[in-house]
Specification:
Layout (H helix, E strand, L loop, with lengths): L1 E7 L3 E6 L6 E8 L4 E5 L2 E4 L5 E3 L5 E2 L2 E2 L2 H9 L5 E6 L11 H10 L1 E8 L11
Parallel strand pairs: 4-9
Antiparallel strand pairs: 1-10, 2-3, 3-9, 4-5, 6-7, 7-8
Helix pairs in contact: 1-2
Length: 128
């Protein structure tokens, strides 16, 4: 099955306090072409389930915390490719929902990247 890939047309920046750390943090979403990736310092980690390192109190990819609201916004807008640069170890808390992310990403515009084949997620196994 084919699916349409898309990214944002322009960079989007989020600033605020980290929900868990309480310190100022910043995240910049850049257009991407290779899936969804998070960067913090020299670390670069793909946003796939096998890379989730913790789910206590938030979702963590490697050393980057509180990704779930931005990931919800990306999924809801069907954005398949983005580079997210994180300063401060976690994403800003915002109002606790995905709404600010949806608004900001929508205002950046969307850019089509073509189609990609969806990998087979399940294999049928028959046992008698």
């Amino acid at each position: 099955m084919l699916f349409q890939r898309q990214t944002i047309a322009n960079d989007v920046m989020f600033e605020g306090l980290g929900l868990h750390s309480g310190v100022p943090v910043k995240a910049t979403v850049h257009p991407g072409t290779e899936g969804i990736w998070f960067r913090s310092g020299s670390d670069r980690i793909e946003a796939v389930p096998t890379n989730v390192s913790d789910t206590a109190r938030c979702t963590r990819l490697g050393s980057i915390s509180t990704i779930e609201h931005l990931m919800s916004a990306l999924a809801g807008l069907e954005i398949t490719d983005a580079e997210i640069e994180v300063e401060g170890g976690e994403l800003p808390a915002g109002d606790g929902s995905a709404a600010p992310s949806v608004e900001a990403l929508s205002s950046a515009g969307l850019e089509q990247l073509g189609e990609r084949e969806l990998p087979t997620l399940f294999t049928r196994i028959f046992l008698q």
